[in-house]
Amino acid sequence: MNRTVPSCGTWAPKNCECYKQCQSVHCHSGGGTSECEHHLGSILGESRCFLYRGRSSVQQDSGVPRNGSDDVDWYQVPSQGPLEWLDGKPRTEDRLPEHKKWFCKGSGKEHVTSLEDCPQHCSSRGVCVQSHHGGVRCVCRMGFKGLACELDDNEEACWFSPTCNGHGKCKSGFCHCDPGWWGLGCTRSSAYALEPGSKAVPSRHRLKIYMYDIPSEYTFPGEHEDGDFQRDVNYIAYEYFLRYFLYDWEVRTQNPYEANLFFIPMLVYFYVHNVQNPYPHIQRVVRYVSTSFPFWNRTGK
User: Start and end of every EGF-like domain (predicted)?
Assistant: First the structure.
């Protein structure tokens, strides 16, 4: 299942095995989709998926079959709970009606088709879409552009730090840092540790904020849909705050032991939108921070 760039979006149908993997990543709670740590949980019930007949789970292909193919079975993902599997397949009552196969969500005029029908197979960086007139085009994943998704599109992708602080390059939505640099926007270059027997002494005269560096799967803004970054201008204040904060070394510090305030860049909106339950995602991030960093709750209060 490696023909396309991985995505958990539901705008275009995917192989059911892909959604099964998405659930294992974003729905750790094991409950209904409303308890998933990602917006994926609430929209999963709107998705359609397919399975190639006569193939085991490891032999399935993420490539969308050509419109009209008769060697696949289509299913609707249940909306009230995790995808239920019997003998390696979704429940038979979740089979998708014929008129809903292949169509893109929210569109009655376009449907996905095989990558083989689009220029250069969309460079395996998107999906191939066919209109009701018969024309085809590539819909590129976030971070790519061009008629065949052959070009990097970094202007929108690395919007917290478009220049990567001059110490890296933006590629597919992430800053790839030069040796010796790390962290969000390639802004970190120093690490600190206490000497044996010594104690942390937070600054008493100046505000010093330490930002936790957390893996992208916990806090980086991800796609809600295929190629859709879900950037909402109503919440743009956070973007401006983080852009300025990353480079404000009068306030920000790389030394957690002098910090008197700690900042978790949680980006909840990008995971649960503005109407979903944020607590599963918050709990997951706090659990990671509290078990991974020695200075969590160091006052004991």
Answer: 114-150
Structural domain boundaries, residue 257:
190-292
Distance between CA atoms of 298 and 93, rounded to whole angstroms?
A: 53
Contact 165, 181 (CB under 8 A): yes
Q: How many domains does the chain have?
A: 2
Task: Establish if 278 belongs to a structural domain.
Answer: yes
Q: Answer whether residue 173 is part of any domain.
A: no
- 31 and 129 co-located in one domain: yes
- Residue pLDDT, tens place only, 204-227: 889 999 999 888 767 665 555 565
**141 lies in the same domain as 28:** yes
Residues in the chain: 301
pLDDT per residue as tens digits for the range 103-112: 666 555 777 8
Q: What is the pLDDT of residues 58-84, one digit of tens each?
A: 888 888 887 667 788 887 765 544 455
Pairing between strand 151-152 and 144-145? antiparallel
Q: How far is CA 83 from CA 21, 59, 91, 189, 212, in A?
A: 10, 19, 8, 43, 34
CA-CA distance, 70 to 289, in Å (whole number)? 49
Q: Are residues 286 and 196 in the same domain?
A: yes
Q: Is residue 25 located within the same domain as residue 144?
A: yes
83 domain-assigned: yes
* Euclidean distance between CA atoms 29 and 111, whole angstroms: 33
pTM, to two decimals = 0.69
Give the H or E element holding residue 238. Answer: helix 236-246
